[in-house]
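Researcher: Here's the sequence for the chain we discussed earlier.
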Amino acid sequence: MNVVLHALRCMGFTGTNRVATATGLSASTVESELIDLAVAGLVTHTPGTFGGWGLTETGRAADAENVMSEVDGVRDAVAGCYDDFLVLNPELLDICAAWQTRPGEQVLTVLTGFHTRADAVLARLSVALPRFGRYRERLTTALGRASAGRPEYVTDDVESYHAVWFQLHEDLLATLGIPR
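Model: Thanks. This is the structure I predict for it:
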């Protein structure tokens, strides 16, 4: 499994540093891997202020093939976690909507309770496929930052709780081969 290629699949068009954050790899390691993937025709790069990296159709197909081989033997466990995720997903969307209309300590307290339940699902998911452990770390970091007075980490930052949750959702769909 190429974690850099898969991160791009889940994040969409983005920069090196965001891929590094998502994968837990250093920016230089990610950049080197992205260059290799570009040479192989799996990703493209657009330079400039609004530039970044994105998958080619060949890259998307290669990632799908990698994921299918990775999930063999743990599909039932991942699918069970996805079912639990689907129960939690509307609740998070409601929390984010509440935050948008009335941000504050009360909504943050609800998000903290939600996080405890979500983390339990992610713990099981991480046992089935260890790469999902990065989502646990990233969600915990986002919640910690929001709780420490950085409210943009609930919904407004590229590493916000909501953004990471969205990437987790994309990853679950890609892992299980479910179209959006």
